[in-house]
Structures are given as structure tokens and as C-alpha cells.
Amino acid sequence: xxxxxxxxxxxxxxxxxxxxxxxxxxxxxxxxxxxxxxxxxxxxxxxxxxxxxxxxxxxxxxxxxxxxxxxxxxxxxxxxxxxxxxxxxxxxxxxxxxxxxxxxxxxxxxxxxxxxxxxxxxx
Length: 123
Fold this sequence. Notes:
Layout: H1 8-31, H2 62-86, H3 88-115
Helix pairs in contact: 2-3
Pfam families: Oxidored_q4
Organism: Chryseobacterium gilvum
Catalytic activity: a quinone + NADH + 5 H(+)(in) = a quinol + NAD(+) + 4 H(+)(out)
């Protein structure tokens, strides 16, 4: 198999990553605590010593999910800023206007979310 030399570091990194995952999973399985099967009191769920009330299917407020989606949205925005920050001189004025448009779209999304009340935790 003839691979270009530029693929060798990628293959090494992939092998190290896969090896790390395999060692972590096997180590957790063999070195982690072993639980006994059954319905004993020790296997029941407890939160700070308080007995469980209700079941695990109690719905959460949509605010938690909305906050998670907003975090991911604005976190991805930062990921797209990195290539621009590294190469902003090569992009020139056209790249600047592209990033300005990108920021404007995110500001519109932010103001939309703000006006819809997604950031108001009191409601």
C-alpha cells in the first residue's frame, strides 16, 4: 500500500486515539468497581442521602435545552473565527466583509433569542 508521506502522521494520530479509547474502556471495565446484580438497597439511586421521589421520566424545563443549544451555537461561532484570526491578512477586505456578515447574522440570532425571552430565567 503506497501512502503519501503526509498521511503517516494522520494515521499515527488515529492509531494513538483509537488505542487510548480502547485502553480507557478496558481499564474502566477491569479496574472499576464491580456492582452486584439484584435489587438491593445499595443499588438504588440516592441524591445526597435523600430518597428518590418520582421517576426518572420527570420532564425538565425547556430552558435547560434552549441554553444548551445556545451554548453550542455560540461555541461553534468561535470555532469559525479561529481560521479568520489566523489568516486575516490573506483574506483581505473580502474576508473582512464575510466575517462581518457572519457576525451580523449571529447578532440577529442573539437579538431574536433575547426578544423571545429565552434568556429570562425568571419566567
